[in-house]
Design brief:
Layout lengths: L1 H14 L15 E8 L3 E8 L5 E5 L11 E4 L4 E7 L6 E2 L3 E9 L10 E18 L2 E15 L15 E4 L3 E4 L1 H10 L1
Antiparallel strand pairs: 1-2, 1-11, 2-5, 3-4, 3-7, 6-7, 7-8, 8-9, 9-10
Pfam families: CUT_N
Protein name: ZP domain-containing protein
InterPro entries: CUT_N, ZP_dom
Length: 188
């Protein structure tokens, strides 16, 4: 009789809809900075946390496979680096605009409040002519790197553009620093 009751209580816990009681939503709490470097064939992402972090980082859509380079199981630390290939890890290519979403999840299995997501973009669409010799020019591409705060919950609502924290740089490197971005947004 006791065993049956325990199983029944466990089933009831998992059957309960928590969507009204637990809101995940976007957060920057606990993150000192997120850096993005757009290389020729991949995105190099560096995450620096304010406190020791254990959990998983992965690109959206890559959790179930749990394979490098798209997924990392981190045991402890405050500094992490991940290379996300343009031709793997669910990276989207929209005519030279490479996009992906990086999820930072504290629990190995569940997305919970306090987890974060960052939209990453490497934009190679803007060509420019560069003189190689006085009579020869070649076309190269300017790179624009962007990081934008997103919702770790795949079922979450999109953040309105006016409220979205973002860092954009007209070079191949950008740093998303939540404390600085929040202060700049407050001044507007």
């Amino acid at each position: 009789m006791t065993t049956l009751l325990t199983v029944r209580l466990t089933e009831e816990i998992w059957e309960k809809d928590m969507s009204e009681e637990m809101v995940i939503g976007p957060t920057t709490d606990g993150y000192q900075r997120v850096d993005l470097k757009c290389a020729a064939e991949h995105m190099e992402v560096t995450i620096v946390t304010e406190e020791d972090f254990s959990g998983v980082i992965y690109t959206r859509g890559s959790y179930s496979a749990q394979k490098l380079p798209c997924f990392r199981d981190l045991k402890s630390g405050t500094y992490f680096r991940m290379n996300i290939p343009f031709d793997d890890c669910k990276t989207k290519n929209e005519g030279g605009l490479y996009k992906n979403v990086l999820i930072v999840q504290h629990d190995d299995y569940l997305i919970m409040p306090g987890d974060a997501a960052f939209d990453l973009e490497c934009d190679f669409r803007k060509p420019k002519d560069v003189p190689v010799h006085k009579s020869v020019t070649t076309e190269v591409f300017d790179v624009i790197a962007r990081i934008m705060l997103s919702d770790a919950d795949p079922g979450g609502k999109p953040i309105p553009e006016a409220m979205r924290l973002k860092a954009i740089n007209m070079s191949n490197v950008v740093s998303f620093q939540p404390k600085i971005l929040r202060n700049q947004k407050d001044e507007l």
